[in-house]
Amino acid sequence: MAVETTYSKLREELASFLDRVSDDREVVVVKRRNGKNVALIDADELSSLVETAYLLSSPRNAERLLSALRRSERGEGKPQTLDQLRREIGLAEKR
Q1: Is the pLDDT of residue 95 over 70?
Q2: Does some domain include residue 88?
Q3: Which helix (H) or strand (E) holds 85?
Q4: pLDDT tens string 14-43
Q5: Residue 34 belongs to domain spanning
Q6: Do 26 and 54 share a domain, yes or no?
Q7: Are strands 3-6 and 38-40 parallel, antiparallel or unpaired?
Q8: Same domain, yes or no, for 27 and 48?
Q9: Which residues of 13-36 are buried (b: 16+ CB within 10 A; e: fewer)?
Q10: Same domain, 10 and 28
Q11: Residue 38: CB partners within 8 Å, gap ≥ 6?
């Protein structure tokens, strides 16, 4: 769950809040007087969320990904290393 703070408290303890965001992956919501609240989120976490949203933005791709997830949860398929997968789809490194 997100941590809430005020703008004034954020200014006083900025380094501490930024450490919580980056080290603990906590989201900090800054409550502002004008009601336009903002959130602080780790940059890597934001990048991951944006990528996930992009991958799921196409209904066809979303269904393929969710179908693969369901198959995996049922234990179907075979575990592979990254190198095995690269060779299987023709992306093996050339030496």
Answers
A1: no
A2: no
A3: helix 82-88
A4: 999 999 999 999 999 999 999 999 999 999
A5: 3-41
A6: no
A7: unpaired
A8: no
A9: eeeebeebbeeeebbbebeeeeee
A10: yes
A11: 29, 30, 32
